[in-house]
Write a structure and sequence with these properties.
The chain is of the alpha+beta class and 335 residues long. Helices cover 39% and strands 23% of the residues. The chain has a domain at 32-88 and 112-122 and 189-333: Glutamine Phosphoribosylpyrophosphate, subunit 1, domain 1 (4-Layer Sandwich). It has helices spanning 2-20, 51-73, 78-90, 135-145, 153-162, 170-173, 176-188, 193-196, 257-263, 265-276, 280-294, and strands spanning 34-42, 111-117, 123-129, 150-152, 204-209, 215-221, 242-244, 249-255, 298-304, 309-313, 317-324, 327-333.
Length: 335
């Protein structure tokens, strides 16, 4: 009997030892939380940007940063900050997410979103939803209220009803600018060149490092103008357009989704850090180099648990910004 008790004790000690190693050994509270965001990459040139439009994008990105960061200062989780920052951009017609989502070939808005917790590796995502004001909120409910990771279409919207989330009429998502893009694409019966060549991607994303030292990532998008109905991009696919792991980093991507899916870009960055020992910046640079070699365009934001960040892209610009020490920084152009 004593022999079996000793064996059991050894097994229990081994189990708890392994459990403690699931989180980084040096994970500790941080004094200065960090929030990083993007609002899409593409041909964003100072010469083609009016002063009014530049101001509008700058102010909205600053609002997203300050909204999410205020939660981090109140000791809220990185998930809360990511969700709040993305909500600001989803509610703005400036970005291809939520209110500003583009139209698919069927004349409908079909939106995708994902969120991931770097502490637990839990994730939630939705795809091809048409009536959800803030798809990132529904993605978080999928993560927290179901055993699943990804729900799509009518099933996702039925789940939203069950959770008491109001469904918005199609009119809410209508913007004249997006509609004219759709009509032009429909007339030509093709996805516009500006979305296939990397000229315009309005996907939004956010990453956060909270005071507890935990990472989170979130991404939300309307996809491509005149995409086939039911087309799903990289945004809601964990490891392609969205990923977070306290052991390595958090990543959110924007660009030609098919290339990010084929290259599993978000996870590839984390894997290069974990298995090759690369720095965050080196891993991101390598991932974008691979993306370019494959013919893809776009960019990523990345953040590790030490507060190191990267905002890298192979297009002319990317709407992006970060905030730490209560100081928001917003950038639009490559320089």
């Amino acid at each position: 009997m004593l022999k079996y008790s000793i064996i059991l004790l050894i097994l229990l000690l081994f189990f708890f030892s392994c459990s403690r190693q699931e989180q980084p050994a040096d994970l500790r509270p941080v004094e200065n939380p960090v929030l990083v965001i993007h609002g899409g990459a593409g041909v964003i040139l100072r010469s083609e940007m009016s002063a009014g439009k530049e101001q509008a994008y700058t102010e909205k990105l600053q609002e997203a940063l300050q909204t999410g960061y205020a939660l981090l200062l109140e000791d809220c989780s990185s998930l809360d900050a990511v969700q709040a920052a993305i909500n600001i951009m989803e509610d703005s017609p400036l970005f291809n997410a939520g209110k500003g989502a583009v139209f698919a070939a069927n004349g409908k808005n079909e939106m995708d979103a994902a969120i991931m917790d770097g502490k637990t590796l839990r994730a939630g995502a939705v795809a091809a939803v048409q009536h959800i004001k803030n798809p990132i909120n529904l993605a978080r409910l999928v993560m927290e209220k179901t055993p699943h990771v990804l729900l799509c279409g009518q099933g996702a919207e039925e789940f939203a009803r069950q959770q008491g989330m109001p469904l918005m009429p199609e009119e809410y998502f209508f913007t004249e600018h997006r509609w004219q893009q759709f009509l032009k694409a429909k007339e030509q019966d093709t996805i516009p060149e500006d979305t296939t060549s990397g000229k315009k991607f309005g996907t939004v994303g956010a990453l956060a490092l909270d005071k507890a030292g935990n990472l989170a990532a979130g991404t939300s998008t309307g996809g491509l103008t005149y995409k086939k109905s039911g087309r799903i991009g990289d945004t809601p696919l964990i490891g392609a357009g969205t990923y977070a792991d306290n052991q390595t980093c958090a990543v959110s991507a924007t660009g030609q989704g098919e290339y990010f899916m084929r290259g599993v870009v978000a996870y590839d960055i984390a894997a290069m850090i974990e298995y090759r020992g690369l720095s965050l910046e080196a891993a991101v640079q390598e991932a974008i180099k691979k993306l370019s070699a494959a013919g893809g365009t776009g960019g990523v934001i990345a953040l590790d648990r030490k507060g190191h960040m990267a905002m890298t892209f192979n297009t002319a610009g990317m709407y992006r910004g970060y905030i730490r020490d209560n100081t928001p920084v917003v950038m639009l152009y490559k320089e």
